[in-house]
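Box S2. Input/output pair 1.
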Amino acid sequence: LPYPPQELVSGESEEESNGVNLMEFSDEILLHILSYVPCTDLVLNVRRTCRKLATLCLDKSLTHTVVLQKDYKVNKDKVKQLMRDIGKEIYQLNMAGCYWLPSSTIDHVTRCKNLVKLNLSGCHVTSLRLSKMLSTLQHLRSLAIDVNPGFDASQLSSECKATLSRVLELKQTLYTPSYGVVPCCTSLEKLLLYFEILDRSREGFMLSGQLMVGESNVPHYQNLRVFYARLAPGYVNQEVVRLYLAVLSDRTPENLHAFLISAPGSFAETGATKNLLDSMARNVRLDALQLPKAWINGSGLLQHLKFNNPFYFSFSRCTLSGGHLIQRVINGGKDLKSLTSLNLSGCVHCLAPESLFRKAEDDIDSSILESLVVSCCNLRHLNLSAAHHHSSESIGNHLCQLLSRLKHLLSLALPVCSITDVAANVEKPPTASNLVPQPFGKKVRIGIQTYPRNLADQANQKLESSVFWALMGSLRFLETLEIIGSSFSSAMPRNEPAIRNSLPPCVRAQSVGDSEVAAISQLTYLQSLTLAQLPNILTGSGLISIGLQCQHLRTLSLANLGMMGKVVYMSALMDMLKHCKCLRDLRLEQPYLCAGAQFFQALSHCSSLQRLCIVSRSGTLQSDAVMSFMANCLEVIMCHMFMGESLTVCKTLQQSIVRSFQADRPALNVVIFPLLHEDLTEVIRDVPMRHLDEITLFKSRVAEEPPNLWW
């Protein structure tokens, strides 16, 4: 390779420079710096700058693991050259979510003869290509793939099956009823299954959960340690997962220590699943547990299950009472110091002693929460959303005060009504006149301020004694925060038409607004923030504080803030965005949102932005402003807008964006469509799962899965 003179790498000669020459750093420091550079840039660009970097860029510490996930600039040619240059040095390859790469790209993975771990989730892989590739990867022990319609296990060669027989970890996303490659993996220790099968075909035909002909082979679970299944809505997904569970019910693996099934809606218990749970209660000790709500509600299962050193529990949407939680799970605090992640989302009675005669809006029992905090003192991820957790007037026993003891928390999800000061609600009960700002009438006296002159001073005065302010001050290392209204539901469900009406916020939440949002600005290391259904947002001034103070913020999701008939926080949001240099994902859901030139001009300051999603009933957009924004923000590869514009306007804009920018942005995914159109669900099904799951669909993501479930 022709290398430039060494001094050109640092930009100027040593004699002319008053600073430090980068090349004078030790190899260890340079390797650490280079570890933050995408591998494609290291191998294809950086190593061509000088001889020293040419050597360092091929160091084993940099080539051992190659991550192409979210490297949206990579294309087929770059992958081909990368595999040609360092294929033999790669032991772990992560191509998850590279939906834009053609299926022929997978052919180049065969150069990685020493691969131990391979993640192809979200990539286009046919049965024949999978067979050819796996036949050459004799050292493979961990595999993640998608199983799409047309997959045929009979096309897998004997060499491919030999490789699969040595695989210990398998992650399989199913888009069609199938066992996939599971029957070939006879040594499995970890099995992760994601069921994304739709109930209807594109032609409108009802699908069946019966497996295809030739797929009656039985999975081998005898060595299984981890079983995880996540189901998208739909009865077909439930039918297929029962076939996977049938083998487990016959003989439960004695080494099983994590059993997790995430199923939305109603997933009824059957005789086979009951036998499975009974067998687990007799024969295994678990470290992680998640079950469908129907399997737990009204049963004594938790009383009989045995736990070893549990690190993850999810009782999402269960009717489990706080009394049962303390007695059957926490066990007096003896065994829960190991618990790092707890999901109680939608568990409306989990902080009450019993649920039989209790209303969901009744006050919580602070002693139960205190027992939880004391017993699970090492919690890093806690989800208490989708429930009414109302604190009583007892001094020192507010939910925020008790949670402030959890000093190790990294992510937290709370309902809006749980963070309000009880004293404030008692002194000034919400009335029709102070729930939301009243529209300006014709008679407004000059000199009379509708809002306080100095909003910052007002906020500071209120926050000095706020329990939520104190909580935010005590959780300085929090990285993810979700504050979601207990009755909030997104206008974009997964497989249903858009929701036109939303439920009103909880009465206790009516006072939560700008000052509480400002309190969040104390979280210096905050990376992800979700705010939904905060009714007392008057100006959005707290957002500006977050933009200034939370410089690590990467993901921002705002939904239904303030009054519904008007976007009252748009001016503050635009000021906030000017400071969000690290922001990568932005999701806005608000009726009547106007995405015009000023908004997109402010958004253009977010130089790192990659994904934008706007959901707005009766919302409007300015097409030329969108085009200008896309031209200015070169990193944007996803633009989803579901608003009130006509189908013609939406299609024209979508086509213009694709035509103008697709060539330079291979991963570009654009969906612009009327929110209330009857074909919305058909459009949604074509969105890459990576974007759909991470940003387009609204959901609480705290403690959604066990930490480090997959590499």
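Box S3. Input/output pair 2.
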Amino acid sequence: YLVGVGRADCTGPVAQVPLMGYANADQVGGGLLSRLYSRAFIVADPDTSKRVVFVSADIGMVSQRVRLEVLEQLQSKYGELYRQDNVILSGTHTHSGPGGYFQYTLFWITGKGLIRPALSSIVNGIVKSIDIAHENMKRGRLFINRGTVENSQINRSPFSYLENPESERSRYSSNTDKEMVVLKMEDEDGHELGLISWFAVHPVSMNNSNHLVNSDNVGYASYLFEQEKNKGMLPGEGSFVAAFASSNLGDVSPNTRGPFCVNTGESCDNPQSSCPVGGAAMCMAKGPGNDMFESTRIIGQNIYLKAKELYEKASQEVTGPLSSAHQWVNMSDVSVELNATHTVKTCKPALGHSFAAGTIDGVGAFNFTQGSVEGDPFWDQIRDQLLGEPSNETKACHRPKPILFSTGEMTWPHPWHPVIVDVQIAAIGSLAILAVPGEFTTMSGRRLREAVQSEFDSHGTPGMNVVIAGLCNVYTHYITTYEEYQVQRYEAASTIYGPHTLSAYIQLYRGLAQAIALNATQDLPRGPEPPLFNVTNLTLLPSLSAESAPANKKFGDVLEEVRQEYREREVAEVTFVGGNPRNSAENATEHNFLTVERYSNISSSWRVVLNDASWDTRFYWTKGSRGQSNVTIEWHIPAGTEPGVYRLRYFGHYKKSVPIFRTITVPFEGSSSAFRIT
């Protein structure tokens, strides 16, 4: 094959924009823990024009808007080379990245609308990562390996899982998929290029009290792998690219100590995830660490170490033809043949009451509980008044789900949920990547993989390695099994196309697999094209107005200085007169907010040792009154840091008023005093 890899920043605005994942309107960005990246991998057949592109981006999920804009840019750059059928865009599902990049109304509610700078950062970052991979294509080889990851996940809806038939459950040793699949890439001389790992776990080690943008546990795994392979480079630099991509993580949590009542400390591992005092709002899962930062590192390190071991031992070479199959499908209207006599249908999208309950990783509001198969007259009344009552047809179709939001019947100002959905498979020799538009639960993913595997087997391509890539192309929430759907915990209430959603997807992906196996992908109907709504920027974000510094101070001045001396494992901290970080995101595509610098006696100069992509630094922005704000930079000095003289620097932009009611953006910088590490 010809192989190319690329990585580009897609962080976007780190302040004031709501973070996407927990649907918690209070959880807005207030700084940066680690940068977000898009990682692109291109595999091409040197003899034909066939190509496959796989992108894993450090974002909550790929929205339809992101995908359509990326495809538009690729077409204008590369013509027919990169298309909807051979480009897979997957989100890692971090819950600590900026939101606001959706065109469907439901996601505007907690995301404060459509935020152009956030959307553009993601689209441009993805395209740039593909550009870099495209420019660096070279002859290379691919190897695949798989193994088991321990101590890194629990099933967060075990009571739903137990609804699946005992005969099916008995074939598996665990209620989560512990298998990691690793694809290793090197050039023909054996130089390492990169890897993709697929593993099913929610990147929710950072909980919904966090305000720092970061890529969570899987992002930390990428960071460790890339830091090791790109020796001597700053984070985010260097040619080796390591993607830790999402899979069927729907009911899988990294918070391995399980659910406890925040107020009393007792377990709340019950079908309603509810506490005796305070109800469901008090039931939260705990990670393995003492706090969310430590838990993120522990889970990330576990995943990294397993991937490293599988990568180093990978010897099974991937060879064979490339192909890709794609269709757009109206998921609100799929007829599924369950057997010769029985046909069922999917439904218009709708969310159930338990959607509002959230999960043990991030609880909802107003004390909704998981597992409600009854509506609540109080909330139903409010919904009927504000949003309109669901039609009888939709109610019947979704039964036993009590509908909270009948999103498929809500069209103001635009539809609230997608109905045109991508289904897609890309095959690289013996590896089949199923690009799925949402979060399949453990058992849903197993059924889908098995169905596709048997389809390949029965059409003359046995022995395929089938992997699920999650959160691809368009976000459609969750996909549970029919049995899990019946008990209506969060994942089931969020299975938006009704009880037969999984059966519909299995039927569709079988069709794609068959087309690939029979070399008939060109005969697949394209399906109805998704809409691109004419909305470019509609947001409730505060506007960026002129800023000021306190009396007798200027931007970048130090307000609270570092100490003169620190030891390893201590925290060096400095506070500056700051500017709104959104100014920087809107002004520079790859702005670096901070550096840690070490003084070199040999060259008598300062050398950058860390940037803001490092997991050891934290950048906090605090808004004050009268256009003033502060920035605090922390460096959590790791064990093994070289003794010497250091300083912390800050780089920002502020808005300045100029005549006739205009503002301009002005760059500035600041530096702490020098301090010694002993």
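Caption for Box S3: The mean pLDDT is 96. The longest strand covers residues 644-658.
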